[in-house]
From TrEMBL:
The lineage of its organism: Bacteria, Pseudomonadati, Pseudomonadota, Betaproteobacteria, Neisseriales. It holds the Pfam family SAM_MT. Its EC number is 2.1.1.242. It comes from Vogesella indigofera. Its main location: cytoplasm. HAMAP family: 16SrRNA_methyltr_J. This is Ribosomal RNA small subunit methyltransferase J.
Length: 267
């Protein structure tokens, strides 16, 4: 896949564009592309845009759906919070979101008080996330939440393998996994939300089975896999528990059940 160019027409933001280009190895171009997909840094935010008729895609933690979630969200009773184990928890888990995407799930968990490390391998998604985080860190209504979110640009399979070698207390409690599957459910859902550009640029995640393995080896409490309600589970280890929702399902892999030997001393 060709690298996605980054264009900035705002003279006041050229330095920021240069920093984004070098941090995420994006080619900075002097002219607005005339076809394909590109990232454009405007006066307000960074967007993924295209010459075709798709809407612009960006990550957002301050306004719109994120504001609604922050103000009216279902608290620890909402499905993603239950899946991660927040309901009734005394201590909040340290969460790694291994497939951060545009950060929607990470944001919900950070809003509920979790510290979330967001791993993202796509330079486009990672740049969109970095821009949204920077805006959230400047806004008084989101700065505390943004302070609990850390972005790491890289492949989660490698990053989690390093974590698995650390002592138990240094490893993440929960690893959250939401890959882009080559199935139709998520594609049509993404298409409805005007996310075709994101889908096209990121592509399918064909290595989810390796990612699940790496997540199980690194997590100390559980791995949570988010799937469309009727989607197939990730190949390999079977989920210990399945939480069904209306459109989304969470497959839980409980470490104590999968690796009881790790808990022998603690019991
Ligand atoms: C379906 S999206 C995640 C959406 C996200 N849960 C949200 O709320 O916005 C999947 C993302 O995971 C990323 N991804 C998949 N496998 C990865 C890996 N091994 N390492 C890092 N990122 C990965 C993809 O680049 C893509 O951006």
């Amino acid at each position: 896949m060709h690298p996605t160019p980054l264009y900035c027409a705002e003279s006041a933001r050229r330095d920021t564009a240069g920093q984004l280009a070098s941090r995420f190895a994006l080619p900075l171009v002097a002219q607005r592309p005339t076809d394909g997909y590109w990232l454009e840094l405007g006066p307000e935010r960074l967007e993924l845009v295209t010459s075709a008729k798709h809407g612009a895609v960006y990550a957002e933690f301050v306004e719109g759906a994120a504001r609604h979630r922050r103000e009216q969200g279902g608290g620890r009773g909402q499905p993603v919070a239950k899946a991660v184990g927040l309901k009734g928890a005394k201590d909040l888990p340290r969460v790694v979101d291994a497939t951060a995407g545009l950060g929607g799930d990470s944001f919900v968990l950070a809003t509920l008080g979790c510290h979330v490390t967001m791993l993202e391998r796509s330079p486009v998604a990672a740049a969109l996330l970095a821009d949204a985080l920077e805006r959230a860190a400047r806004d008084p209504s989101t700065q505390d939440i943004a302070a609990r979110m850390t972005l790491v640009h890289g492949n989660a399979i490698d990053w989690l393998a390093q974590q698995a070698a650390l002592p138990r207390e240094a490893r993440p409690d929960v690893v959250f996994v939401d890959p882009m599957f080559p199935d139709t459910d998520k594609k049509s859902a993404a298409a409805k939300k005007g996310m075709q550009a994101f889908q096209h640029v990121i592509g399918d995640d064909l290595d989810s089975a390796q990612l699940l393995e790496a997540a199980i080896a690194a997590a100390t409490v559980r791995v949570v896999v988010k799937r469309p309600q009727r989607g197939v589970p990730i190949e390999g280890v079977k989920p210990s528990v399945v939480l069904d929702g209306k459109s989304t399902r969470f497959d839980l892999y409980i470490i104590k059940a999968l690796r009881p030997q790790d808990f022998a001393d603690a019991d």
